[in-house]
Amino acid sequence: MSNRRAELLMRERLILSSRAFVEIVIWNLPRPMRGSLHQYKYRLAYVVDGTCVLRFDNESGKGDHRHVHEMEFPYVFADLTALQRDFWSEVNSRRKGN
User: Fold this and answer.
1) Distances from the Cα of 4 to the Cαs of 10, 28, 59, in angstroms?
2) Cut 0.85: pTM above it
3) Domain edges within the chain
């Protein structure tokens, strides 16, 4: 059993415009959460006009997934670099459509 504590790796709020921002929170955990095979707890959200239109997260028991508006889809977690790349790719695609 590890005595290591959860470590906050990133907590950022990035203002993209007067209408939109991104919030990223990533923790390194002592052991994987229920439903995950990796030791990270994360939430990456894109919010427009006060509504979360895109979110990647891994709630305990639900595992890795992403929310697009009101719909939820599985997400295959590879590593933190791929997670952020995938998230920003979707954010940028949505911003071009706005």
Assistant:
1) 18, 10, 21
2) yes
3) 7-97
